[in-house]
Amino acid sequence: MEIRSTTDQDLDVFVDTLHTPFGRFPAAPAEGGGAWWSALEMDRGLFAVAADGRLIGTAGAYSFELTLPGEILAPAAGVTAVGVVPSHRRQGVLTAMMRHQLTELRARGEFLSVLLASEAVIYRRFGYGPATYTHRLTVPRHKAAFALPRAGGEAGSDTGSIEVLRRADCGEILEEVYDRYRRAQPGALSRPHRWWAVGAGQPPISRAPRYIAVHRDADGVPDGYASYVVADPGTLTVDETIAADDAVFTALARFVLAHDLASEVVFKHVPPEHPLRWQLADFRAGQTSDEDGLWTRLLDVPRALTARGWFTDGELVLDVDDPFLGEHGRYLLTVRDGKAECVPTDREPDLSLDVSDLGSIYLGGTAPSLLVRAGHIRAHRPGAAALADALFRAERAPHCLHWF
């Protein structure tokens, strides 16, 4: 078997080969837009080629910016289009592609890799850990009344306005509002202009018909939107809600929950710890399901840890095992005034952990103490887990909406 890079000329056969593992055929592009694969970066793709020349696997990557705690933008490879044809599964093809890809990412100078996992059991063995989470919230309209704020005043009051546009008429607004949002939201990924230009991805990036509720602040500047559609038998589905703050999110939520002829409203992505469910008069009205979002892998531990922002001073010795790449390192992490230094050390460890667990806690979405309790991270002294919780927290829960 050989692993080789792809070129632009390979796009069609790459897409055909990719669909085979999933038992599907490439679907026609959405109305007026491009296919999701029109944003693929073919200079970052890989083919697995059998000894007889047949293409038996694919893997790709996008060039993104990932927002780290502290509103720091860092380059990150977005791993995508991974699949092995059914006749060659369980033969080491995926493992070979993943090892080859990680080696290439490092050769490019990249220190972070992220993906959306189709199956949760696959990618942890390659060093990825779930790092962001999202809620799906379903609210019957007859239970959608909002409670009066008990703290007094107008909590979450909004002085802006909402205008309903069609997706085809507001592409620039969507791109600008999302870009401002993602720069301040830990765990968010950039959406390169090319994606918007060709309509690659899921709504509202794709040009599939959608209504867009655009929120404008008191000066008329767009600062949020909700992309939605109503389908039989009366379910209004919100693809995503992008908002500058909780007040804007609440205004958009109130708007869609008051939509005529909708029997229920489904919010596909509500950030963790968002207060919307608490704002409803009936706390049980909103039924939630939790899903993992972005999975993160550190390719260079010291570089990754010094890249993000920090909010508590302290120091920890981390003993990090990377079994997939056959590596092991012990690092002294020292945080002072929001900056970190991370250097090799021979001091006794405070925490021992797998690189996948380090990926899970990296963005602040998973508490180290939770993984200690789960038996994944070992704390070597009392107080080490609590200190790690304080150090690794983010200014708010990380959240990733971008599908790739």
UniProtKB/TrEMBL annotation:
Organism superkingdom: Bacteria
Ranges for domain N-acetyltransferase: 1-153
InterPro entries: Acetyltransf_17, Acetyltransferase_Eis, Acyl_CoA_acyltransferase, Eis_dom, GNAT_dom, NAcTrfase_Eis, SCP2_sterol-bd_dom_sf
This protein's UniProt keywords: Acyltransferase, Transferase
One Pfam short name: Acetyltransf_9
Active site: 123 (proton donor), 404 (proton acceptor)
UniProt keyword DNA-binding present: no
PROSITE patterns (alphabetical): GNAT
Binding site for acetyl-CoA: 82-84, 90-95, 118-119
Subunit description: Homohexamer; trimer of dimers.
Family assignment from sequence similarity: Belongs to the acetyltransferase Eis family.
HAMAP family, per the entry: Eis
Protein name: GNAT family N-acetyltransferase
Organism of provenance: Streptomyces noboritoensis
